[in-house]
Backbone:
């Protein structure tokens, strides 16, 4: 008998290996779509942009006489001529005091707009009928030309300081109401359903669920609106009463009347630097208040949590609250009748 040959085993084909696409070099890496940029590269690119702008400014104003320049000195002074006037801003024109006056006006008007706009926006986001009721006022406030508001403020307010604070309030309150309502409405409905399932009331759902979840978005809109308010104040400060304080807008008008073009360009350079410093402070507060969204140690969030717990403890101390007793749905047994023992 012939011996049977063993059957040949078929080995599985090797799995196809993923081949990485060939790299096209650093240029393709720089222009990759939506690729995050390292922090050091972003900082260097920002410095490079400033140097390019300064180089263009120097190129347009290079030359000793106006005939040698592409842009005359009466229109655009050179960087050297501009920065030579920088000490005069601090010695003669008190630029630091004027900047603090402008910041105080913007802060007071913006805080007043927050105090009015955030509660209305929260209620408008929670109740669609109230949102429809406030829609015409919000649309009017968002689209009205602010230059047309200034003559109206001359009749509504007799004080120059109140007029400027009210101007910032009118400029920002409609945007705060709209952004707050939108942030409340964007909270997912499942969080509301979960709060109702756990027994929360309507007020508790608004205060402890909707508002905390929407606050990161609301605070982000505050940063954008504060920058706009800082630009609006220049228009309000163009009108100055005899007993009114100064400000950056008033300083610009003063330099324009005196034909001090170099000082005007210095103010234009100082305003973005001050706005950037304020924005960095707000960004630090944003990271501290909402570390779960933006990262950071969350010191302000911890302090806020401690204050809220302390407030709850004080309420329990001064107002003794006893939860209502829940009566059993099973009626008590009648007198003389013992309840039946359960069967094993």
Residues:
């Amino acid at each position: 008998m012939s011996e049977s040959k063993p059957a040949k085993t078929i080995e599985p084909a090797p799995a196809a290996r993923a081949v990485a696409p060939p790299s096209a070099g650093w240029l393709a890496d720089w222009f990759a779509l939506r690729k995050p940029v390292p922090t050091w590269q972003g900082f260097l690119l920002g410095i490079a942009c400033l140097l390019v702008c300064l180089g263009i400014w120097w190129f347009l104003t290079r030359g000793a006489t106006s005939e040698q320049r592409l842009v005359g000195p009466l229109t655009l002074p050179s960087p050297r001529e501009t920065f030579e006037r920088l000490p005069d801003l601090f010695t003669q024109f008190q630029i630091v005091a004027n900047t603090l006056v402008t910041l105080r006006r913007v802060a007071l008007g913006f805080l007043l707009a927050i105090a009015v706009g955030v509660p209305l926006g929260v209620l408008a986001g929670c109740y669609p009928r109230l949102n429809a009721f406030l829609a015409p006022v919000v649309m009017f406030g968002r689209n009205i030309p602010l230059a047309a508001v200034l003559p109206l403020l001359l009749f509504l307010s007799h004080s120059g300081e109140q007029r400027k604070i009210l101007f910032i309030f009118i400029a920002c309150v409609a945007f705060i109401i709209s952004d707050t309502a939108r942030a409340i409405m964007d909270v997912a409905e499942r969080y509301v359903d979960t709060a109702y399932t756990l027994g929360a009331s309507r007020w508790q759902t608004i205060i402890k669920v909707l508002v905390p979840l929407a606050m990161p978005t609301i605070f982000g809109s505050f940063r954008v609106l504060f920058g706009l308010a800082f630009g609006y104040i220049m228009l309000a400060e163009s009108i100055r009463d005899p007993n009114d304080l100064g400000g950056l807008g008033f300083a610009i008008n003063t330099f324009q009347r005196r034909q001090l073009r170099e000082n005007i360009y210095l103010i234009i350079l100082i305003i973005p630097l001050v706005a950037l410093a304020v924005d960095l402070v707000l960004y630090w507060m944003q990271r501290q208040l909402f570390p779960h969204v933006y990262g950071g140690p969350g010191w302000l969030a911890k302090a806020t949590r401690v204050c809220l717990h302390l407030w709850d403890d004080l309420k329990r101390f001064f107002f003794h609250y006893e939860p209502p007793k829940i009566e059993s749905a099973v009626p008590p047994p009648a007198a003389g009748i013992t309840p039946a023992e359960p069967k094993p």
The radius of gyration is 33 Å. Residues 202-236 form the longest helix (35 residues). The mean pLDDT is 82.
